[in-house]
Amino acid sequence: MEHTQVIDPKERLQFLLEHNASEELASYLDELSSQEVVYAMSHLSRTDQSKLIAMLSPEDAADVFEEIPESQAADLLLDMESSDAAAILQEMESDDQADVLMEIESEDAEEILAQLSLEDAADVRKRTSYEWDTAGGLMITEYLSFHADESVEQVIHYFRTHGDEFEDLHIKYVYVVSRTGSLEGIVQMQSLLMAAPHATLSSIALKNILTCYEHTSLDELGDFFDTYDFYGVPVISEDGQMLGIVLRKNVLEAYAEQVSIEHMESQGIVGGEELRTMPVLLRSRRRLSWLVVNILLNILAASVIAFHQDTLSSVIALAVFLPIISDMSGCSGFQAVAVTMRELSLGTVRTSELLRVWLKEVSVGLINGLVLGALIGVAAWLWKGNVYLGFVVGGALAINTVLAVSLGGIIPLILKRFGADPALASGPILTTVTDMMGFFLALTFASIMLNTTGAIH
Amino acid sequence: MEHTQVIDPKERLQFLLEHNASEELASYLDELSSQEVVYAMSHLSRTDQSKLIAMLSPEDAADVFEEIPESQAADLLLDMESSDAAAILQEMESDDQADVLMEIESEDAEEILAQLSLEDAADVRKRTSYEWDTAGGLMITEYLSFHADESVEQVIHYFRTHGDEFEDLHIKYVYVVSRTGSLEGIVQMQSLLMAAPHATLSSIALKNILTCYEHTSLDELGDFFDTYDFYGVPVISEDGQMLGIVLRKNVLEAYAEQVSIEHMESQGIVGGEELRTMPVLLRSRRRLSWLVVNILLNILAASVIAFHQDTLSSVIALAVFLPIISDMSGCSGFQAVAVTMRELSLGTVRTSELLRVWLKEVSVGLINGLVLGALIGVAAWLWKGNVYLGFVVGGALAINTVLAVSLGGIIPLILKRFGADPALASGPILTTVTDMMGFFLALTFASIMLNTTGAIH
């Protein structure tokens, strides 16, 4: 576990590249940890990345492709001859193949697939038709199956004679299928050890096993593995044919990926992934697609101020507090959004529970609104020596905090219920509503005070 | 995988509770998926939760405790007699035990531990001394080990005769230890199948195996499992004694948890976990601890406006745009923060690469700044028919966007380098700096225009 790398991996790679030392390169990459490969690759120019891949055998190149971000691997595939691309693709694991191909325009992908055998190409094409967050997209198609009437002895004999082929594969189960390919049961490795040698697989297999379908969602799979301590679950078609296995580790990895994508989206990175190695214009365009919506919503919210410009000129001090009200309401609301997103993923809340969540948030909003309103109210009062200004600013923030917190709690639920993406849309909707309300409250309170007391200056 | 639950689990639980049907309760809970248990439990009152746990056997109660959030489990342990708590604790898996106990004040935890045997209590105490995100905190202590001089036949015999004891355990390896307890190697289940019956474990064991120490971090473990397709890695003490195993699945789960906690923290949920079942005052206090810092920083930023109040009264239209500049700069900066946080966790960036990240962000910031500045500038010009106002507002947003984006990219790196938590602190620092700069730029530009052209009204 200790990698005492004196040399920076990216410099070492660069050196080996410049010296065309392809054998040393392959063995050096093999030594590096996964993170070091990712780090070093992302620091090479795209030309150098291509040169490096070209120097490796398809097997070694496939190993690198399985480590680096998919968009990077896809770019590199496009840079090479389609026959070379196909050779590397063929060495990759079935789930990684599909993930990389999905990053490529379908025309370019077809050119690569044309280099594969018809059967292999059809397999990969089928794989790419699944969503990444379904059993079909997550499954691997590498597994061991035996016929139901084979004996324990035959299987053990098979292992003894073919053992070297699975050295890299960590086999946990063998799958027992009928002559027509439909899944009959599974046998754990330990059961093979414990069974009488002449028993048939059928007699020792666990029957009525739990399976899933190609379109079973990541959420359902996550729930499944939470409930059952299994290593994997077989994926079957509607007619009972075995298609592959979804491994727990792939579900857990996909789940971490989903959380991370949601986090990126909530911060306005559309598409959920951006690497600094991507072209500047692409990065800029994807960020702008979200920012432009945001600025239009901002202008809409600020128009509330424009309508009350007269009030504002009479109470110019208010201009200092409007950005504070806007920012603080946003912060309070985002906290509630984050808790709801968390509870949705934990499963402690359902999209139908609007009222329950709203009530839970109103109580927190009331306390926090009073505290924050008091703080800002006192600040305004002390600064201008005008207690009315304190009431206007503090009152607006207090009420708006209650509103922001309770809306923040339920907006993700409403969006999810209507099939929209709560990670991406909750923020802009929340801040627009709370900005408009916050400005409206502060300016209306100010104008009431002006009219009744004339005491704000 | 299909749970056709017609009745809402929380209502069914409530019904069984009211009728004191403890046997049906246990079997019903067994039928529920993990998410349904979490959902139903979080919808019972704390009294009902306690009542439910009291109706279950310690084994069944332990199963529930392993599903629900740790803070909830800890509360329930505190509600019961310490002997009952200890009985349940003893049935939980070693890693979950420690996680729950760490949520309890040490005095209360000691009261429960006093009910365990001295040895068990010492074990648990040792476990709780590890950080949750280290090998010590993540490892399980349930594993199978045999002495190096035992034969394959003996081990197979042991499995055949003791098989039922491990029915729930999915054994992937057995660990081979010397007479003094130091780890000599591991044997895969498939190797037991392939080996000659009289071979000693020592002769078929994989030696020189990779191990980790108690204090190996989650990041290192994640990197390890990225690189090696192992099911688990043994944890050894400095003197080579085997302490436990860290499983890949627990590392992946902890990683997803870490991403999720970082996301919550970046939205101002201090401590990283909040459930709506927690007491209102606790939730409110934890959210406020972050909001109060934020409002003080907001007041600091807004003081820039206060200093330029004269300019503002002459150009009251500017008050409409100050909140927009503040909000949009924040949005642009947060995008860059999110990309850096993502790249840190992928490993494509290191904390030393300030200049590289800064340059990469400046280029995106320039493009986005120009686009956003032009948009807001045109909006201002059209609204007031004053092209100077457009230049003031658009220029301020354009420059401030470059600043926000490039700062947003490097702030997490700087914070991490100095050992601070980038998830929690990046946002407030970023918005304070960009607000101050944004207000300063807009008001200064306005005052320059006023002085030179007098053309803004």
What is the terminal-to-terminal distance of chain A?
A: 68 Å
Question: How many DSSP helices of chain A?
Answer: 22
Largest interface: A-B, 123 and 123 residues
Q: What is the overall shape of chain A?
A: elongated
SS content category of chain A = mainly alpha
Oligomer description: homodimer
% residues in beta strands of chain A: 5-15%
Number of strands of chain A: 6
Q: What is the radius of gyration of chain A computed over CA atoms, rounded to a whole number of angstroms?
A: 30 Å
Mean pLDDT value of chain A: 88
Helix content of chain A: 55-70%
Question: What is the H/E string of chain A?
Answer: HHHHHHHHHHHEHEEHHEHEEHHHHHHH
Unreliable sequence segments of chain A: 1-5
Q: Describe the largest sheet of chain A.
A: 3 strands, mixed
Query: How would you write the strand order of the largest sheet of chain A?
Result: 1-2-3
Key features?
homodimer; 457 residues; mainly alpha; three-stranded mixed sheet; 22 helices; elongated; disordered N terminus
Description:
Two copies of one chain form a homodimer. The first copy, chain A, has 457 residues and is mainly α. Chain A has helices spanning 9-18, 22-31, 34-42, 46-55, 58-67, 70-79, 82-91, 94-101, 106-113, 118-128, 135-138, 152-162, 189-194, 201-204, 218-227, 248-266, 280-307, 309-314, 318-346, 354-384, 387-417, 422-452, and strands at 145-147, 173-177, 183-188, 212-213, 232-236, 242-247. In chain A, strand 4 (212-213), helix 15 (218-227) and strand 5 (232-236) form a beta-alpha-beta unit. In chain A, helix 5 (58-67) crosses helix 7 (82-91) and helix 6 packs across helix 8 (94-101). Chain A is elongated, with a radius of gyration of 30 Å.
